[in-house]
Amino acid sequence: METLDWITVQGLSATGFHGVYPEERRDGQQFVVDLELGLHVVTDTDDLHDTVDYSVIAGDVVAIITGEPVDLIETLAGRIAHRCLAEPLVSVAKVRVHKPQAPMGFTFTDVSVSITRSKQ
């Protein structure tokens, strides 16, 4: 079994217009994304080219959150995972999309979807 190292980015937050209800598409709401990127980290070169630039990935994830609306956070998570796997060194992408203001009509702390995708 392959051993991977992990780069984690937690709490990326942006306003998106995703959801199945018209008010979600009209008003927008906060979405929060956590990422875990599985790769082999080279630790002896101290060179950015031997890893992933997580600030670039984070910027692209925010652009996905604020970009073209989708109905489901599952779809949003899939788009984000696809972007993460576009990095040549990333073998596995674990993505959690939080929708803490989901219109459920109940008191709750958070609702989220977690997916794991890999190149294999």
Automatic annotation (TrEMBL):
tRNA processing as UniProt keyword: no
SUPFAM superfamilies: Tetrahydrobiopterin biosynthesis enzymes-like
First-level EC class: lyase
GO-annotated biological processes: folic acid biosynthetic process; tetrahydrofolate biosynthetic process
GO annotations of cellular component type: cytoplasm
GO MF: dihydroneopterin aldolase activity
Pathway: Cofactor biosynthesis; tetrahydrofolate biosynthesis; 2-amino-4-hydroxy-6-hydroxymethyl-7,8-dihydropteridine diphosphate from 7,8-dihydroneopterin triphosphate: step 3/4
Assigned EC number: 4.1.2.25
Domain Dihydroneopterin aldolase/epimerase intervals: 7-117
Gene3D superfamilies according to UniProt: 3.30.1130.10
SMART domains recorded: FolB (SM00905)
Sorted UniProt keywords: Folate biosynthesis, Lyase
InterPro entries: Dihydroneopterin_aldolase (IPR006156), FolB_dom (IPR006157), GTP-CH-I_C/QueF (IPR043133)
Family the entry assigns: Belongs to the DHNA family.
Name this protein carries in UniProt: 7,8-dihydroneopterin aldolase
Species assigned in the record: Luteococcus japonicus
